[in-house]
Structure formats: structure tokens, C-alpha cells
Design brief:
This protein has 14 helices and 28 strands. By secondary structure, the protein is of the alpha/beta class. Strands 14, 17, 18, 19, 20, 21, 22 and 23 form an eight-stranded mixed sheet that branches. Helix 7 packs across helix 8 and helix 11 packs across helix 12. It is elongated, with a radius of gyration of 31 Å.
Length: 580
């Protein structure tokens, strides 16, 4: 027999990998690779951050470098240590390790000293105009801006006022520090951007030392430079910010007296497309509204697009990273179908989920020719994709729970499950046949409460009639006397529109600029959570929180944090097949 080739076609490299390799080949930054992941600790990370994590940490791993975790903590009014710990947990869960944990606040003194130096060089000034006046004077992309009346104030005066900004005596909004660049620049970010603003809020790390805080555009590049970052990988909205990023780095290098060639020893910013998915809304601001309004049960609600929400829902880190790898990194935005994400997770769970029997819409099946009180014990394969996962035992008895949809009294010809005169195989067990008449019992409301069938002898695997051919399908079951009651939470998409961001924005505009939950409510799926009582085999009680399970013929599930031995709770991750 001819040997099958094991050669696998190598996946082409993305443009960021090619850029990094060009820089290394040119000997830039001493042929080092150092990246950083810089989240703001003002909320929980969402699936969009997972794409950034994968490239920031992945590039460092691939090229023998290091990726630091740096918290962008320049907005103390919104930040909290709760978010810091959650960010660390999410990164570790995805399978990545950082070099150092750093904070933008580590550099507050350096940033302040640099700002003072730039004022002394005439490159920055204190502006006392209001935010509205500054915005109005910025001009438009086709019209030059107007210089501030404070732009050419004496350096000594700006130095004095800058110190005053941090005194705690200046009301927020009264003064800002602006870079003096070019109010006629084609790049709007060059029109004297704000470097510092007054907040008068204690910082959760630095206490009351600072009342004036640096802006992101001023902070980010310098932190990269001081840390030794070689590749600053950002999303596409930072493309127009890149010239300002480079200019501030140049200024920082000049003030520091760094005599290394600028082109060979500097952080390089490269931008990639954000992760956009149908049927989700990723803005932290909007996610916070959902949490505060009680639409979801916290940041880790399994309907939330947060990393912790997907973890609780039962998504695997490998499935998430596989999806990110499939969609790749480009320089143009795209809207990816949620079904593609679910498919990647489904493919991964198929390899790792343990198979169990569970009935989520139960009706009783009585095997009339099986002796009362007798029990048979079978070995059930835990995972047909991985023999090492072994087997566990499941009991079979006279009375079983089956899915209500697996029986139909007036069954059409092409219904291949139970019905009058129809045969099916019970998974791991016998072939059974319903009688032509009196095959079920109903309550006073006409609801079926019991189904009757007879087993066909010697039809178990390995027995004389095990290969008996029937038209019916194989259905699953649990023994009524050997199962446990469980709560099953079937989660669906939170939004009933493909693009909730645009839908909410348009609705808001059409209805008097309403905001928050009032603009969101018309597009929320009222059936995003369905809670059912189910029966599961006893072995399920041995599973740990967040174990990956496949409820056979139903879907993939995981054990929820709320689950206890006395009250089992399972979350549906995804259905077995795409039902959308």
C-alpha cells in the first residue's frame, strides 16, 4: 500500500510577521523582538482583545522575544484592581505568559519631567480655553485650524501654570497642556494635541500624588520607548495616530540624549484590523450598560462577548485561538459571521468533550418486556476522538427517559424515530419496537406521559441480532432510577440583529438621540436564555466546573460555577450543528 504523504502545506505568514522578519533581517533594534499588550483596566476583556493578545504574545513567542503586560491606567476615575486581576486571568487562560507586569503609572514622573522639558523647548504650552473652544479651533480635514490665543505665551508662564495644574486647586477643564506642532497640518492629530488634563482624582496606585494626568497619545509611545518595545502592534484606528506616536518618541529620544540612529532603534507601530462579529456588541461602554441594567448577570454572563463570559459558557481557549487564526490579520475591516466562530469552537470541542447522556425535554419510555427491578450496566465511551479518555458505566433498566421529540404518535412516513410500529436503536443498548396500538398513555390534557415499547432480544452489540437492519435512528436515553435531575441553561445570541452597533445607533438617531438601554432594548433577543429541567446520567456529578461535555445528539455543554452536587447546572456552549 502506498504511503500517504504527511507533508502539510505551510500556512502563509501574515503581514505583521513579514514586517517583523524584515526588521530582523535589517538588524533593527539589535535584532530583538519585544512587544506589549496594553489594556486599560476599566472593564473586562472581550473577544476583540483576544485577537490583540494572540498577535502581541504570539509574535514574541514566534521570534524568541518577550511580551510585557502593561496596564494603561491613565484614567483613574474608571479603573479598578478588579479589572487588573480579571485581565491577568484571561491572558493566562488563553495560554500566554507575560514577561513583566507594568503600568503606565510607573512612568508618571518621567512623563511629567518630559513634559516640563518640552515646555522649556517651546514644544508645549498651557491652554486655558474650554474643550468646546479647542474643538472649534481645530478646523476640519479641509480647513486649517486656528491657533490658540495662549499658544505663544511665555515659557515661564506655561511652566508655572503646568505646576498649578497638578496642585489640586485647578478645576477640571480649566487648563490643559498641549503640544505645539502644526495647526495647519493635514493630520488632525498634529493640530496641537492635548498632552495633560486636570482630573483631581486620586489614583488607585499612586494615591494623591497626581491631579493632572497624561493623555493616551502622549503616554503610549514614550512608555514603549522607555521599555524597549520593538514592535507596537495596534488596531487600524491608530493609523492616523502613528505620525504623532513617532513624533513624541523622537522628542523623548532627543530630550534623553539618545544618540542611537532613530530608524534602527525605535518602537515600530503596525496596525491590523479589529475583530468584528455579527450579533455582538463589543464596546466596553455598552457592555457596562448591559451589566448595570441587569440585562445580563454580570461580566461573565455566558451571553456576554467577554473572554470570561465565553470561558463560563464553555468555549475552549484553543477554539477561540483557532477562530482567530482562521480569520487572520489584515489591513482592512471585515464583519465576520458568528457562525464561523461557533464552528471553530465546535470543531475543537468535538476533539476534547466527554460524551454523556442527558435528556432535556423528557418523557418516560417503558420497556414492557424488560423485567422490573433488573439493571444492566454498560461501558460508555467517554470520547471516541481520544481513546485515552477511557470509559464510564451507565445503567439500563425498564423505565427510561427519552427526548419528547423522539416520539410521534401520528408520525409521517419519513419520521425515523419512535412511533406506532416503528423501531429505533437505543444507544449502547437494544433495538426496540413500539406496538401498532396502545403505544402511549396521555394525561387529562392530552399530553403524552408514557410511551411503551418492547426490546428485540439479542440486539445489543456483540449479540446474535446486533447487526439487524432497521430504518429507525439511534436515540439516547437515561435510566429513570439511575439519573440525576439537573438545571440546563440554553444560551442563545443576545442580539436579534446582525449588526447591533449600527442598529442601536440608527434607532437612537431616529428617536431623539436616546442613549443607553433605551436604545438597545428593541434589538435584544428575549429568548437569549432558556432554563430547563433535565435528567442526566449519574456520572455527570463527577465532572468539575468548566469541564467540556457533549450531551449526545443535543449539543456541547459545560458545568457552571453555580453547580453543586445537590443541584447540577450545565450551560449550553453551542449546538451540535449550526442551526442558524
Amino acid at each position: 500500500m502506498e504511503e500517504v504523504s504527511k507533508t502539510v502545506e505551510k500556512k502563509s505568514k501574515n503581514f505583521i510577521e513579514l514586517k517583523v522578519e524584515e526588521d530582523l533581517a535589517a538588524g533593527k533594534n539589535g535584532k530583538r523582538v519585544q512587544t506589549r499588550f496594553p489594556p486599560e483596566p476599566n472593564g473586562y476583556l472581550h473577544i476583540g482583545h483576544a485577537k490583540a493578545i494572540a498577535i502581541d504574545f504570539g509574535i514574541a513567542q514566534q521570534y524568541g522575544g518577550v511580551c510585557n503586560l502593561r496596564m494603561d491606567d491613565t484614567n483613574p476615575q474608571k479603573e479598578d484592581t478588579e479589572y487588573v486581576e480579571a485581565i491577568k486571568k484571561d491572558i493566562e487562560w488563553l495560554g500566554f505568559k507575560w514577561g513583566d507586569i507594568l503600568y503606565a503609572s510607573d512612568y508618571f514622573q518621567q512623563l511629567w519631567d518630559l513634559a516640563v522639558a518640552l515646555i522649556k523647548q517651546g514644544k508645549a504650552y498651557v491652554d486655558e480655553q474650554s474643550a468646546e473652544q479647542i474643538a472649534a479651533q481645530k478646523g476640519t480635514p479641509t480647513q486649517a485650524g486656528i491657533e490658540s490665543p495662549y499658544r505663544n505665551r511665555p515659557i515661564e508662564e506655561s511652566l508655572r501654570l503646568f505646576e498649578e495644574m497638578n496642585s489640586g486647586n485647578i478645576e477640571p477643564g480649566r487648563m490643559v497642556l498641549r503640544a505645539k506642532i502644526d495647526m495647519a497640518s493635514d493630520n488632525m492629530h498634529f493640530r496641537d494635541p492635548i498632552m495633560y488634563r486636570v482630573l483631581n482624582i486620586p489614583h488607585w496606585r499612586t494615591g494623591n500624588k497626581w491631579n493632572a494626568y497624561p493623555m493616551y497619545d502622549y503616554t503610549h509611545g514614550q512608555c514603549d520607548y522607555w521599555e524597549g518595545v520593538t514592535h507596537s502592534i495596534c488596531t487600524l484606528e491608530f493609523v492616523p495616530h502613528r505620525p504623532l506616536y513617532d513624533l513624541f518618541v523622537d522628542w523623548a529620544k532627543q530630550v534623553a540624549g539618545d544618540d542611537q540612529p532613530l530608524d534602527d532603534n525605535r518602537p515600530r507601530q503596525y496596525e491590523f484590523n479589529k475583530l468584528n462579529l455579527t450579533h455582538i456588541l463589543l464596546s466596553k461602554r455598552n457592555l457596562l450598560v448591559l451589566v448595570k441594567e441587569g440585562i445580563v448577570n454580570g461580566w461573565d454572563d455566558p451571553r456576554m462577548p467577554t473572554i470570561c463570559g465565553y470561558r463560563r459558557r464553555g468555549y475552549s481557549p484553543e477554539g477561540i485561538l483557532s477562530f482567530i487564526d482562521k480569520i487572520g490579520y489584515t489591513t482592512f475591516d471585515a464583519l465576520n459571521q458568528m457562525s464561523l466562530f461557533e464552528s471553530a469552537v465546535r470543531d475543537d470541542l468535538n476533539k476534547r468533550a466527554l460524551r454523556v447522556s442527558a435528556v432535556v425535554d423528557p418523557v418516560k419510555l417503558v420497556i414492557t418486556n424488560f423485567p422490573e427491578g433488573e439493571v444492566e450496566v454498560y461501558d460508555a465511551v467517554n470520547n471516541p476522538e481520544n481513546e485515552a479518555d477511557g470509559t464510564h458505566q451507565i445503567e439500563f433498566s425498564r423505565e427510561l427517559w427519552i427526548e419528547r421529540e423522539d416520539f410521534m404518535e401520528d408520525a409521517p412516513k419519513k419520521f425515523f424515530r419512535l412511533g406506532p410500529g416503528k423501531e429505533v436503536r437505543l444507544k449502547n443498548s437494544y433495538i426496540i419496537r413500539c406496538p401498532e396500538e396502545n403505544c402511549c398513555k396521555k394525561d387529562e390534557n392530552g399530553n403524552i406521559v408514557e410511551i411503551y415499547a418492547e426490546l428485540i432480544p439479542d440486539t445489543k452489540t456483540g449479540q446474535a441480532n446486533s447487526d439487524m437492519k432497521i430504518k429507525g435512528k439511534t436515540i439516547h436515553w437515561v435510566s429513570c432510577n439511575h439519573c440525576l435531575e439537573a438545571e440546563v441553561r440554553n444560551y442563545d445570541r443576545l442580539w436579534n440583529v446582525e449588526n447591533p452597533r449600527d442598529a442601536v445607533a440608527n434607532y437612537s438617531k431616529e428617536n431623539g438621540d436616546i442613549r443607553g438601554i433605551d436604545a438597545m432594548r428593541p434589538f435584544l433577543n428575549p429568548h437569549s436564555l432558556e432554563i430547563k429541567k433535565a435528567y442526566v446520567e449519574k456520572w455527570c456529578a463527577t465532572r468539575k466546573t468548566l469541564d467540556y461535555l457533549q450531551f449526545q445528539r443535543i449539543g456541547y455543554y459545560t458545568v457552571d460555577y453555580d453547580s453543586t452536587p445537590e443541584h447540577l447546572v450545565f450551560n449550553r456552549t453551542v449546538t451540535l450543528k449550526d442551526s442558524k
